[in-house]
Specification:
alpha+beta; 5 helices; 3 strands; GMP Synthetase, Chain A, domain 3; single chain
Length: 95
């Protein structure tokens, strides 16, 4: 049974890689986890989250919160990558 589960996991990983589905999969994962990861306040002022080519794009509607993100980008990148389970996000762009 374990061999079948392992083979199925490898099949899914191959399918995700070949169809370039990882960014959309990670984007959906981040959208779902965002309120728990960042808290209600940050979630309230985040109007858009998208992920393209190892870059997370955020639309933040609060100027002070934008500044906090800019000043603490490495901390947020680490937190996001821990949520994803790998070092995927390299940059955050805040609009």
């Amino acid at each position: 049974m374990k061999d079948n589960n392992h083979a199925l996991k490898e099949l899914f990983e191959l399918m995700i890689k070949e169809h370039k589905m990882k960014p959309k999969l990670y984007e959906a994962k981040l959208r779902d986890a965002w309120p728990q990861m960042m808290g209600k306040l940050i979630d309230k002022y985040t109007s858009d989250i998208s992920l393209r080519k190892n870059t997370l794009y955020l639309r933040i509607t609060s100027a002070p919160l934008k500044n906090e993100f800019i000043m603490s980008k490495p901390k947020f990148i680490d937190l996001i990558n821990k949520q994803l389970g790998e070092e995927y996000v390299k940059e955050i762009v805040i609009r």
